[in-house]
What does this fold into?
Amino acid sequence: MIVDDQELVRSGIEMILGRAPGITVVGQAADGRDALDLIELAQPDVVLMDIRMPRLDGVAATERMMSLPSPPRVLILTTFDLDEHVFAALRAGAAAFLLKDTPGDELVHAIRTVASGKSLLHPAITQRVIEHFLAHRPPVDGAPAMALLTEREREVLLDVARGFSNAEVAERLYLSEATVKTHVSRVLAKLDLRDRTQAVVWAYEHGVVIPGQT
It folds into this structure.
């Protein structure tokens, strides 16, 4: 589903996606409120969400979508990556974000990646956005939640937050990649997080990783 207040943008994206095998545009909305009204009928797997829109913006719409029983994966479209609204959208549960000038083939690849449940954001970009908006904020006390994790799970969370892939974490901790995936799933479940992107945001917000730390 495409959500953008500019009809030409929606039409252009639909034209690009219309040429992509296996992708169907099930609906369009001009703002977040219309998107929420349409989502139950359209049942999209992925929502391409603009940020700045009238009536209900992309951040608020994303947050409300995440409260649905089976929320879609939300892919934020923005004109500027270091935007406080991008950070807010990631914090609200968006799976990833793309710049609006992204080439069509990259947009198609991003939709397929997000729809499959995989992480799309390049770790360096994710960290740059998060660090930019958390550098001068005191961390939230994460000790009570971290106490729910085993020592190995804490190690995995730290490496995920630092931007390492499952394969890299496996190599660093002398584990199999399948074991790392299991640990990541348990970390997400214990901290009530949806995906790796939220895990990175959570780790920075709770002082597990300090902005600027490698």
Q: What stands out?
A: The two ends are 37 Å apart (CA to CA). The longest helix spans residues 177-190. The beta strands are 2-3, 28-29, 46-50, 73-78, 96-99.
